[in-house]
# Entry
Amino acid sequence: MRDITADNITDAVVEAWSNAPDARQRFLLQSLSRHIHSFIRDARPTQEEWLATVDFLWRCGRISNDQRNEFALLSDVFGITSLIDLQNTAPGATIGSVLGPFYSDDSPHIPLGADLVKDNDGDVVLLTGVVSDTSGKPLGGATVDMWQTNTKGSYATQDESQADDNLRCKQICDRSGRYAFTTVEPAAYTIPMDGPVADVVRAAARSPWRPAHYHFIAKAPGHRPIVTEIFFRHDPLVENDAVFGAREALVREIEPVAPDEVMPVALQRRPDRILRFDFTLVPQTE
# Structure
């Protein structure tokens, strides 16, 4: 097409994707083109502003590596990640929340009742609960994958002073679908403030803080996995999460452990406090 104008360029771009053999891919590419062009028509950025945008994206790529994904952070601060999580949460399942930029799939497997505290500061907290399906049937053999910050607000995958596997683990639930391990309460922290996404947040005078939380992935054969977070009722930052991940259904109390309280499983270390959270998974076909 040689006679491209401001009036027909959107149609030309949409048509350029029309031969994509996969119908879903074709729809996504065409819809994205329409919406981007609509934004450009509405905002009318200058050439300098658009070049600055391209440079911003280039810098996001430059700072990303195996331990950090700046584009994931960009998706988070615009609420895109949370919107996709919310739209894709199946009825009856535990609600999803953001994966975050510091997840690593190589966390060590630990046995039931194991201790992650080691030499970390903070009260000892027992994390425990049951993974079940939507009918309430426990999913024995389910896996929970947890990662968190230390009491200084740093993840092991971003902090060279921590052991690589510090405060992160995978655990296979017992026949009752139960998981249980001791750790410490994580600290609140800001999103990474040394990259291009932080420049945008700072320019908009937005809070960069995230409430303290535990990240979890729960999965079981034949069921849809969930990615979510657990927040704490005593943390005021749940009212203003920089990445819009806090949800009322994911906020819990960390309760004190009574001296004579019986633990749900044998533990390597007796906790000071306990946080209970059950996960519900839906069958893969739903």
